[in-house]
Specification:
mainly alpha, AhpD-like
Length: about 180
């Protein structure tokens, strides 16, 4: 049972109702994470403000989904792991890409650098040395790439922490936190 229950979507008003209507058009329903965030218009708008800004960035939607998987695994958020496995798959990510992303890796060298940095940012709370930053530059990531990766990590940490705090019921096909070796 959730510690913070989702709001009744039909009772939402104003900007919250408008945002949830947009979510319903995107997903065909309102996933529990959004109806939980909707308790706070500021939290809901923060999520979508970051999402909209990231959509205009240099990384692809699939790359952001892979980052979401790496962050969800690192933070142990089963809701987000389940959601982004489904969404990543709908966007074309293959099962092996999803499994590798959960470990913070990819077979594609650019995606591997992106996911390695995302995991390292989570694991080290952003405290990378200048030499570590230089190593990511040597792997082909620009300053803009690295800052967008950090923004994507922050975006996903928001929902990871909301779902963990709220105990959000998973309304996507459930994915286990533990991975096969």
């Amino acid at each position: 049972m959730p510690a913070i229950r989702p709001i009744n979507v039909d009772a939402a008003t104003g900007a919250t109702a408008d945002t949830l209507a947009t979510v319903k058009k995107l997903f065909g329903n309102v996933p529990n994470v959004f109806s939980t965030l909707a308790h706070s218009t500021a939290a809901l708008q923060s999520y979508f403000g970051i999402r909209q800004a990231l959509a205009a960035g240099g990384l692809s939607g699939v790359q952001h989904e892979l980052i979401a998987l790496a962050v969800a695994q690192a933070n142990g958020c089963q809701y987000c792991l389940s959601a982004h496995t489904a969404i990543g798959g709908m966007m074309g990510a293959k099962a092996d890409e999803i499994a590798a992303a959960r470990r913070g890796h990819a077979t594609d060298p650019r995606n591997d650098a992106i996911l390695s940095l995302a995991r390292e940012v989570v694991d080290k709370r952003g405290r990378l040395t200048p030499a570590q930053v230089a190593a990511y530059k040597a792997r082909g990531l620009s300053d803009a790439d690295m800052l967008e990766i950090v923004a994507s990590v922050v975006h996903n940490v928001l929902t990871n922490y909301v779902n963990e705090l709220a105990g959000t019921d998973i309304d996507f096909p459930v994915v286990a936190l533990a991975q096969a070796a």
